[in-house]
Amino acid sequence: MRRLAARAHLWGGLLLGPVVLVLGLSGAALVFRAELDAPPAVTPGPARALDAIAAAALLTEPGGEIGALRIPVRADRPYRLEIVHGARQVDVLVDPVTLRVLESRAPERSVFAAVRSLHAGFHAGRLGALAVALIGVALAVESVTGLWLYGLNPWRRVAGARGRSRCAHRLVGAASLPVGFVIGVTGVPLALAGAGGAAAVPTAPGLARLDALAAEARRAVPGGTLVTLLAASHDRVRAELHEPTGGLASVDLERTTAAVVTLRPSSARGAWELVRRAHYGDFGGSLTRVVWVLAGLAVPALTITGYLAATRRRHRELTAAGDRRERAARAESSDRAPSRS
Questions:
Q1: Is residue 87 a contact partner of residue 198, using CB atoms and an 8 Å limit?
Q2: For residues 219 and 269, what is the distance between their CA atoms, to the nearest angstrom?
Q3: How many CB atoms lie within 10 A of CB 12?
Q4: How far is CA 335 from CA 180, 248, 332, in A?
Q5: What pTM, to 2 d.p., does this model score?
Q6: Which helix (H) or strand (E) holds 83?
Q7: How far apart are the C-alpha atoms of 8 and 15, rounded to whole Å?
């Protein structure tokens, strides 16, 4: 079983190395998306009414309807409105103080939309998402077999060039094992959720009376900070608010009367949010995100050091076998040679 586990660990690492490198690099970009894709700064001052901001966005997209309004957590960031034209969507960034449109573009033309598609499914839709889920399972198996084969002591039985490669392999593996295991395990449900199909552009009527809807949502979650208004259906609008405790509550409102239909506190969606934050290291600031990125990029390093250790071991075995054959040939030759009197 140990020999079988060693073979599975070796070939699993060799096959996973290239694809995990792609996932690691794309995941690193997504982890730091807020810093790499920072929108333009807005004018300091109090924000205008939501209805006025929506009207300013619609001026640049005649005939469109507001599918969603997203309010940033930081006050120096613009509001983002998703304008729907039938099956087409355009994201419009608006300065909430001056009502100036800062940017307007289709989301599929964003570089980070392509990076997210690559990370979630290699641009291959549901089949790609299933492949990413299987890769997550394989990473967990690699972690378990590596722990079984090498244990917690990376320094034992180190000698020669092969020993140095194995030492480096064990050190990198031991350092990245806890975080790598978490990334692999949490990536499985996220990938399976992506395999269920991409979210369609909302076909519900556009949002209106945004200030009234926002007021009712804030009343339903006292002390909450509104972050999203979304056209969920023909008769419902969904609002998401950050609770004072740090969670994210969801409120369904009746479209015409703004009456609260359903209130889901953050505890109702805490498990899924925990999985997402654990996968991206989004719970301890920049330090945890840096650690998560390094752990994600450690797998290609494990592939290289594992390959070097395996090839040197094979070279050593072949050399030893050649030496044995040469000694046997010399012994046989000496036996056949006539003895001198």
A1: no
A2: 20
A3: 18
A4: 59, 85, 5
A5: 0.72
A6: strand 79-85
A7: 10
CA-CA distance, 135 to 341, in Å (whole number)?
Answer: 72
pLDDT in tens, 233-284: 889 999 999 998 877 899 999 999 999 999 988 765 567 778 888 998 988 8
Q: How far apart are the first and last CA of the chain?
A: 56
Which amino acid appears at position 83 of this protein?
I
Q: Which two tokens stand for residue 193?
A: 């959720």
pLDDT-based confidence at residue 161 (cuts at 50, 70, 90): very low
Go through the chain and tell me how many residues it has. 341
Task: Show the tokens assigned to 114.
Answer: 């392509």
The per-residue b/e assignment along 230-262, b for 16 or more CB within 10 angstroms, e otherwise, is bbbeeeebbbbbbbeeebbbbbbbebeebebee
Position 18, amino acid: P
Are 189 and 152 spatial neighbours (Cβ–Cβ below 8 Å)?
no
Question: Strands 225-231, 88-94: parallel, antiparallel or unpaired by DSSP?
Answer: unpaired
Closest of 89, 93, 88 to residue 104, by C-alpha: 93
The 3-state DSSP class for residue 98 equals coil
Provide the residue type at 145 as one letter.
T
- pLDDT, tens digit, for every residue of 2-25? 788 777 887 888 888 888 888 988
Specify the residue for token string 């998401």: 240
pLDDT digit string, tens, across residues 23-54: 988 988 888 887 888 888 898 999 999 999 99
